[in-house]
Amino acid sequence: MALSCTLRLLCWHLRPSSALLSSLPRQDCRLMSEKKSAAKWKKEKKAREGCSLPGSSWEERLTDTVTPLWRLPYQEQLQVKYKSQKKILQTLASRLEELGTDVQKSGGLCCPLEPVVPSPVIDGYRNKSTFSVNRGPDGNPKTVGLYVGTGKARNIVCVKANRAKNIPPQHKQVAQCYEEFIRSSPLDPCILFHEGGHWRELVVRTTRGGHTMAIVTFHPQELGQEALATQKASLKEFFTSGPGRVCALTSLYFQESTMTRCSHEQSPFQLLHGEPHIFEEVLGLKFRISPDAFFQVNTAGAEILYQAVGRLSQAGGDTVLLDICCGTGTIGLSLAQQVSQVIGIDVVEKAIEDARWNAAFNGISNCEFRSGKAEAVLPQLLSSWEDARPLVAVVNPSRAGLHYRVVRAIRNCESIRRLLYISCKPEGEAMRNFLELCCPPDPGKKLAGEPFALTLAIPFDMFPHTVHCELVLLFTR
After folding, report:
1. Are 333 and 342 in contact (CB under 8 A)?
2. Which of 17, 108, 122, 293 is deepest in the core (most CB within 10 A)?
């Protein structure tokens, strides 16, 4: 039962995205649409909904939603993930052939696929968790947890994450305390913006050194500054001298937000208590982490990933390394000793500030970090590139993949002969990136440079108990 349920969930997660379908030729798109009959959609929906075992508790249903592979032994989880990555590469090979690319197939794949690299930590590995506030199974709107159901289906239930195997106990404790706090507050939760209310999501970040950062999001609605100050003081008191002091927070942040997501520039993170940053050590280097800075969610797994990236890059002492979507600079800084220079780019200004601090603190002087959108910074940088040193690029974008201008800049820069693409969702928008990197020259898309060839794929299990992997793809030319 568990294995069949797992496979059904896996098929759901690997369904083609609407954006990917839109990139197909019209004939292919029409054929796929015809195959997706109403009866089949109903069948898939029923399969997804039936994945929780009969008589499951709400917490079990949540666990099945968030970590659908949790019932399988870990080695079987890795086998399931390997099969899913194989299907992705088979799809990519077919798409490349349609574009007229000469694909060197290896067992129906477009390149060799190595076994999934296991995570050193299987349970409680997440260093960052986001908890929502909504109605729980008992109808209480001040429930802090994760969602079962969808907004589209209007069947969302917020369930406590006490049994989620990927979330560490410290995160669960902070979430429980936050729930206790908002339930004692006279203010309502903000479930739908237009309906009012104030208390919103909670983000918890932790490090292996014992640091804990909590970030509370709050919708101000019509509250004045004095009323806001009262709420901030109440929150601080709860976590510093009230019941929440058991969490021993290193940092407590408060963000007033009228949008679903806000950057620090849009609405500053306000430090209510403790230190402005938490710190993590990766491969012997110390890293400073701000509230909204990107950091790989599985720290122990990230160390193995970064070491592999260093080997695959084949970067020598005369190499310039481009670290695109660099976050706090973890990849570039971990490879700085083996290259001549590192240039990192990230859109989050605070992350770039952290990266610069990290370089200075660790005594690394050959790194330069630039703040801005990669699609604006990188084309400008590469258009005037005249450096004769070898140039290697590492990209680690979000699930949305790279902006087409970034792909075009890399493709058209002949100095880049080696590219490492780290993808957390290769079956999604990143697939378009892979095709544009490898397709024949296309004047219409301004892809004039020599195509890359995909030469190796290695999946890293950064997310045990889930269907997801980080897939590292090596492109060369």
Report:
1. yes
2. 293
Catalytic residue among 179, 303, 353, 470: 470
Cβ-in-10-Å burial (0-12, 13-18, 19+) of 1 comes to exposed
Active site residue 438: no
Which residue in 5, 190, 424, 438 is the catalytic one? 424
Give the contacts of 227 (CB within 8 A, at least 6 positions apart). Answer: none
pTM score, whole prediction: 0.84
Give 346-385 pLDDT, tens digit per residue: 998 988 999 999 999 999 999 999 999 999 999 999 988 8
CB–CB of 405/375 below 8 Å? Answer: yes
Nearest-angstrom CA–CA distance, 278 and 321: 27
Q: Strand, coil or helix: what is 84? A: helix
Q: What are phi and psi of 278, to 5 degrees?
A: -115, 165
Asked if residues 436 and 448 have their Cβ atoms less than 8 Å apart, the reply is no
In 260-348, which ranges are continuous DSSP H helix?
299-313, 330-335
- Residue 3 CB: number of other CB atoms within 10 A? 12
Per-residue H/E/C for 67-91: CCCCCCCHHHHHHHHHHHHHHHHHH
d(CA 96, CA 212): 46
Element (H, E) at 69: none
Please confirm, yes or no, whether 303 is among the known catalytic residues.
no
Which two three-digit tokens encode residue 458? 């290695």
